[in-house]
Design a protein that fits this description.
Chain lengths: 232, 464
Amino acid sequence: MSLVVLKGVQKTYRLDAVEVPSLVDIDLTIRANCFTVISGPSGSGKTTLLNMIGCIDQPDRGQVTVAGEAVQAMSDDALSDFRARHIGFIFQTFNLLPVLTVYENVEYPLLLSRVRGRKRRARIRDLLEAVGLADKAANLPGQLSGGQRQRVAIARALAPAPQLVLADEPTANLDSHTGAEIIELMRRMQVEQAASFVFSSHDPQVLAAADDALAMRDGRIERSETVGRTAA
Amino acid sequence: MRRTWSLALRNLRRNRRRSLTTLTAMVIGAVTILVFGGYSRNITYSLQTSYVLRSGHLQIERKDYFLYGSGNPAAYGIPDYRRVIDVVERDPVLAPMLKVVTPTISLGGLAGNFAAGVSRTVVGTGVVVADQNRMRQWNDYRLPLKVGPIALTGTAEDSAVVGVGVARVLQLCRQLAVSDCPQQEQAEAEGVGIRAPDDIASLARQESQSAASGDKIRIELLAANVHGAPNVASLEVVKAEQQGFKELDDMYVGLHLSQAQRLVYGAASPAVTGVVVQLAHTSQLPLARARLEELLATTLNAEPLEVQDFTELNPFYGQAVGMFAAIFGFMAALIGAIVLFTVGNTLSMAVIERTTEIGTLRAMGLRRSGIRRLFVCEALLLGLIGGGAGLAAALGIAWIINQSGLTWLPPGQVDRIPLAVRLWGENMLMAGTAAGLVLVAVLSAWWPARAAGRMVIVDALRHV
């Protein structure tokens, strides 16, 4: 089953008077409940592609369908609500809210999704236990290591039980050991939470964990292959 | 929403120094507005009280007396004033509001101290002493007043009180214990003494008067009677009294109503130039005035009468209040602009610093309005904290000023009065200032909040 479908997607950025094509005629399908990795050199269009899939950017041309919905037709508010319900984000620099505790950071997307009281608390507790940070719930992000912060970011991304989690270079700011732990955690969470994870990464560890691998160059998909298990 | 407030508060605490600087600016602004507002409010109440103590809230006069009749009681008198007073006091609408209703007469004349060979034009005011003493108890604003009975209390009918300025000009300083009389002191030091009258007849009259009056201080008050002929009353000056305003102090001669009426009307039927109405509270003025006008048009329409309130009778009051209101408005606008730009600058910097956070929140699904709300809440909190702290600081400063014992000399007055800031109990002033500050803070957040809400998510996430 396809969770994300891109048809003929094009995106061009303008830097002063120069037009820089970032995505060129992208046709892409991302399967549900899969671990998909997008690789490619810097400037190949990985992040732009993730932004399109994540509904935080719009193509100049083409169609983007996520979870069965044509997202381009949505208003900004509807798109915000759609992201809150269906998409989780994990950032290279973690992007936790520094004034909120670990607990509150995980809680925030649940508040946006209007998950109420007891159910919300149970969800946060389960996720923090799953990422091994139950004892750090009251800590601020500034009191955590890089690996711990990324674990919080994973818990936050998964909090509203999204169908799709996007991660832009999630291990780039971590050492190889911590990066491996994070990949293992994400893989486990992807299976447990029955979500699709889509990464952009150069990290061979990430590539090795992938079900599907996409290679990009100059805004085009150079290669697309199923390298791991087949989705259930 | 609870999380939005919590997030806003924490974001303010995140950059404590900047938030404190902004709050300090707001507190200084609030204190400036409130202290000046309290100060001008105190002046307004003091001025109003000084007028109401003397001449009540409202005065019923013969039509056009205020414009043309001043100093001409013969032409602009109210002959049937006792009926006017009776109707006013018995009126069921007015009665609960009344404190004092009393007749008064104002006359222009010439006061002379022939013993010293000096005279000056004066305005004589005839009053009912007991009523005036009751009027002096009025203190609607609970000011720290020390107003005793008028000096005519318990005196004979031919007694008079003069303003300190009149006493100086009539060279009665020593007799009436008036200080600051350099001309008289100089004359006495040079041995000039009391000037002899110009002719033998005057000298004889002076001698006979001195013998008759013993040590009494007497002046002669010359005024035109009802027939236009000059009439003279010999008055015993019992006291020289500060009148509050220099212009009045230099002209004032107070005397018993009956004496003033005899001077003007002689054996004819006595009249008055005004019926003074003092109300329990100034706030009752519009209602009382409307009712009086109704009575003058119906029950009391036999005579052409009109009613004036104390602001019309004393134009300086309105001018002073207007001036303070203009200064207050100017200050408030200036401080409002400073707060507007200070808070706006603080929030603009916060928006720039938190660009990545804004991108993250938007990516997570927070709507544009949610981002706007976040920054508006921060401004609202700044306004509430700044307004609250400013209010507390202003109350503290007002208390210190009020306890300091400082005095000042208001323009047009002769007495120094306590420097006071009237803030406690002035709920409209306090609430208005605090609410204004909050409103300005929220307004100042609008533009940065709008800019934050309109950020392109991917650009915000790329921000370093």
